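tool=predict chain=A
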Amino acid sequence: MDKKGSYISIPEKIIMFLVAFMSAIVMRGIVYNLSELTFVNKRYTPFLYALCIIFSVCFIFAVKKWFGIIDRLSKNRQIVVTAILILIQFVISIWLFACIDYRPNSDSLTDIDTGWFLKDNVLTETNAHVKWLRMYPNNYFLILVLKELAVLGEHIGISNILGYLWLINYFLLFAGIVFAFLCAYELSGHKKANKVLTLIVLNPIYYYLAFWVYSSSMSVPLLMGIFYVLLKLYHEENSIKRTILCLVLSVLIIIGFQIRLTAVFPVIAYVMIRTLDLLTADKKVLDKKRNSVRILFALGVMVISFAGIKGINGRISEIFGEYQEYNLPTIRWIFVGSHGDGSVKTEYEDNGFDYSRLFGKNKEEKSKIYVEGIIYNYKRLGALGIAKLFANKLRITFSDAFPSVVSRAYSGAYTGEIFEILRGDVGEFFAYIYRIMLVFGMFLYAVFCIKDFGEADRRSSLFIITLFGEMLFYLLWEVKGDYADSLLLLMAIVSADGIDRIPGVKRVTNNRFVRAFGGVVIGVLSVAFFIILTSNSKYTYNRINGDTYSRSDDVISIEVDDHNMLSQTFYCDDVFNKLTIRAEAEGETADYAVTLYDESGSVIYEKDFNSGDIKKGKLKLDIGDVVPFPEKSKYRLEIKKKAMDGTNIMFYTGDNYYIDSYEGSLTLGEESYVDDLSLKVEYTGEGPFIPYGYAFFICAICMLLSVFGFWCNTNGSSLP
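tool=predict ok
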C-alpha cells in the first residue's frame, strides 16, 4: 500500500485521541457499574467485582489467542469458521425464540399496535395511542412501515403478529451482521471479517435485540449497509457502478434518517475523510476532473436524499398532520440531556425551569423556551459541572452492559431455568465481561492509531470517526443505556482491530512460576465462584410478567361491580405460588372474592379481599405451590364483588387493539378485551442461587476460557 493509503491526518489523530479519552471514561463507568453487582447478597459484591475484572482480562487474552488461530488458518478453513460462527448465532437465536414469549412495551408497543390499527382504521381523538403520537414525532415513519407490514401479513395470512415481527427483525439484524462481515472483508480480508464476526456472536445484547421491534434494531442493517456502500464507493471509478452505489446509498440514507438519525453518521464521516484527502493531497498530482465528478455524484446523492426525505415527510403529514403541531420540538431532547444525569428520568427536576411556560405554546414557541432552559442549565453547571455531566452521560449510554432491552425481554411468559439464569444477575455478570472487552478494544484501537496507523486501509478511519460522532452526539442528546444497542456492530468492528493489535506477553510472563501462580489463581477463583453461585438464597422466578409492557400512566381500569364478574385465563408450564394484580380503590369497599381454577375446572385457590388488602396499587396473593399438569396448563382467575355496598375496586389492563400482554383472554361480564389483566405469575422459593449442575457448567467454562486465554498466551504453546 502506498503512503497515501496508510496516512492519517492531524485532525484524525485528534479524533483518535478523543475516542481514546472517552473510551477511558466509559471504562471507568463500567468499573463503577461493577461495584453495584449483587449475587445472593451484597457481601459478595467486592469479590464479584474483582472476579469480573480478572475473568475479563483472561477473556480478552482468550479472544486474542483465538484471533491468532484465525490468522494461521487456510482460506478453506476460514470459510468453515464463518459457517460455524453463523450457525452458533442461529442456534442461540432459535433457542431463545422457543423459550421466550416476549411482549413489547412502551414505544415498541405503541408503534406496533398503531401500525396494525392503521391497516383498517383512521386515527381519531378516541385512539388510545394519540396522546403519545402527539408528543413524540420520531416514530411516525416506523409506524407507517409497520402498517405496510401489517397489510403484507394480512395478505399472506399471518395471524401471529409478534412471531411475524420477530422473524423480520431477526433477519434485519442478520443482514446487519452480513454487512459488518463484508465491511471487515472489504478492508482486511476474510481473517479480519471472522474476528469481527466472533465479537458479534459473543455479544449477548445482539440476541435480545431480535425481540425488540424498534428503531434501535431496525437501524442496524441500515447503518452497516451505509458503511459497506461507502467503502465500495471510495475507490470506485467506473461511472455505471458508481451511479448504482450512489442510488443505493441515497435509499439507505432516506430510510436511515427516518428510522434513526444516527444511521447517517457514516456519511458525515465519509465527507470529512474525503475533505481531508483533498486538503492534504499533493496539488501537483491532484486530478481536478476526477474530483469534480466525485463532487457532482455527491451533490446527486444529496439532492435525491433530500427529495426522498421530503416526500416521506409529506406522506407522514397526511397521516399525522393534525397531531404534528402538538409535537415536542427536537430541541427538547437536547434540553433533557443538559441537566440531571442527562436521562429522561431527571427531566422534571427542580432546576429553575418552569414547565407551565410550555402549556398552550406551538412548536416554535416551545423551542425558544427549551433553548433558554439549555442555556440556563449549562451556565448553572459551569465547566466542572458540564464535565461531570458528560462523563455521566457516557457511562449511562456506553457503560451499561445490561440495558433495559434485556428486561424488556421479560414480559409475556417464558420457560426454562437456563433463560432465568441468562436474563438475571449471572447474565449481567458475563455481559459486563463482554462490555469490558469491547470498550477496551476500542480504546486500544484509538491509541494504536494515534501512534501508528500502520498498513491499515485509508478507509478504516470511517469507522472510528463515525464512532466519535455517535459518542459526541450522545454528549448533547438525552441518554439511555439502550441507545448504544444500534452501535454494537460498529463497536465490534473497531474493537476487533484493537484487540488484534495487543502485543504478545510471552517475553514478560514466560516462566513456570508465573504460569503456575496464574493457574492456581484461576482455579481458586472458579471454585469460589461456584460457592457463590450455589449459596442458599431466596429467589423469585417470573412465569408471566404482564405488568411491565405498558406506560404506567396510560392504562385503563375495569370496575368490577356486583353485576359483572371479571375473568382472566392464562397458561403456565412451570410451578408457581404467587399472583400479583394491579388494582386500586377509593375508600372502603365490600368484600370481593378471587378464585383460581385449574384446567379441569377445580378450585385450587380462593380468598376474600377488600381495599385494605391492596398495598401500593397491588393485590398480592400467596397461593401455595401449583404444579401444572399437563405440562402447559390453562388457568382461570375470577374476581367478583360479593355485596352491593361500598365503592368498586378498579383492576388495570392496557389499552391495546391488537397486542395482548400474555396468552389468555380477559372478559368482564359479556364484554371481551383484546388486552389482559395486569398480572404477574411468579414462583418464589429458597435454595441454591443457581442449581448445582448449571453452576458447575458455568464455572467450568470460565476456567477453560481463562486457561485458554492466560496459559496459551504465556507458555509459548502453539495451537494448530
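Residues 114 and 121 are 10 Å apart (CA to CA). The radius of gyration is 28 Å.
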